[in-house]
Amino acid sequence: MITSVRIVGAGLIGTSIGLALRSHGVHVDISDSDKSAEALAKDLARAEKLDNPEVIIVAVPVSKILDVLKTESALYPRSILMDVGSTKYELQVKVDELSDLRSQFVGTHPMAGREVSGPTAARNDLFAGRAWPIVKSTYTSSAALEKVKEVIGLCGATTYEMGAEEHDRAVSVLSHLPQILSSAMAGQLHGLSNDELVLSGQGLRDLTRLAASDKTMWIDILRSNRQFIIHALNSLGETLDTVLSALIEDDEKTLEKLLVVGKDQQQRISGKHGAQPRDYSFINVVVGDKPGQLGALFIECANVSVNVEDITLEHSPGQQTGLITLALSAKDADVLYHHLVKLNWQVHRA
Questions:
Q1: Higher-confidence residue: 223 or 322?
Q2: What pLDDT, on the 0 to 100 scale, is given for residue 111?
Q3: What is the DSSP pairing of strand 4-8 with strand 55-58?
Q4: Is the pLDDT of residue 54 over 60?
């Protein structure tokens, strides 16, 4: 098992990795050019000075990764090196040209983050259940690959091996385009007064959440993957042009197709651990506004040995009832529904 890891970069990702590894007893060292961020990250992760770390994780802006890799490789020539940058192709091409470094390096990209940045936003469970792609080059040693997979496993993520170009093409749509759309949509709000903005619903908040992200980091990312992002934007532009024409011509069928295709594709978005989403059945349970209702419901779930995959709770202050929605397999949902009906719970199939 890995016992020591050095992290260069005390931002959200680097510090969160440090916290996750420390929770498994791994000795962690953290370094950053911003000494204030470094000091906070070290305190949070209970970091210590390491002379010969087994693995070095480079968690700096994309444009600075290569220089840091060269520096760290010179300081710790026996260490495995990995990065956590959002783009992989340009970096991998350059690393493959460095004979002293390429066999010890593995490019990776944790598909996790928050719209807030810095060590104050770090969480030890940030990567739990998330996909974490690994880009393996022809030069990558099996020893380096296994060490990196162990780090990712300790962070609670699931590894996926893919090519650098394949990765960058995928994230241009899955990650980079959403950031652009979120920022662009938030920018459209400039024409609305504060009185009008009070009408904002959760849909707008969800769509514009990413607009609060760190601009410096994202400029770096967008520039490094501009080839694939340009293609993604052209494709999106064609779709928006079609919608615009449909609205001008009052073309109901085209608008319906947009919404149907969008809903169908949304259902394909991966679930836990990057796996395909399961086809759950849902049960709605209405409960009174009194203590112990949620606990009592879970006791009944245990009594009939059903597994609850997910749960949502809707309840407003002052409301006399609350709504609990349980997600289960179709078989478990059927068992639980009939069990609760017999016990006179207020239960409804969704």
A1: 223
A2: 93
A3: parallel
A4: yes
Angle of CA points 247, 248, 254, to nearest 5°: 40
Confidence of residue 174 (pLDDT cuts 50, 70, 90): very high
3-state secondary structure the chain: CCCEEEEECCCHHHHHHHHHHHCCCCEEEEECCCHHHHHHHHHHHCCCCCCCCCEEEECCCHHHHHHHHHHHHHHCCCCEEEECCCCCHHHHHHHCCCCCCHHHEEEECCCCCCCCCCHHHCCCCCCCCCEEEEECCCCCCHHHHHHHHHHHHHCCCEEEEECHHHHHHHHHHHHHHHHHHHHHHHHHHHHCCHHHHCCCCHHHHHHHHHHHCCHHHHHHHHHHCHHHHHHHHHHHHHHHHHHHHHHHCCCHHHHHHHHHHHHHHHCCCCCHHHCCCCCCEEEEEEEECCCCHHHHHHHHHHHCCCCCCEEEEECCCCCCEEEEEEEECHHHHHHHHHHHHHCCCEEEEC
Tokens read off for 155: 């962070």
pLDDT digits (tens, 9 = 90+) for 189-241: 998 999 999 899 889 999 999 999 889 889 999 999 999 999 999 999 999 99
- Which fold is adopted by the domain 281-349? Alpha-Beta Plaits (3.30.70)
Domain residue limits, the chain:
4-163, 168-266, 281-349
Fold of the domain spanning 168-266: 6-phosphogluconate dehydrogenase C-terminal fold (1.10.3660)
Half-sphere exposure of 77 (CA within 13 A, CB side): 3
Closest CA to 9 of 1, 17, 243: 17
Q: pLDDT band for position 270 (50/70/90)?
A: low
Give the pLDDT of residue 315: 64
- Tell whether the model's pLDDT for residue 276 goes beyond 60: no
Average of per-residue pLDDT across 26-47? 96
Strands across the sheet containing 80-83: 27-31, 4-8, 55-58, 80-83, 105-108, 131-135, 158-162
Place of tokens 């990712």: 152
Q: Which CATH class is domain 4-163?
A: alpha beta
Tokens 């908040």 sit on residue: 205
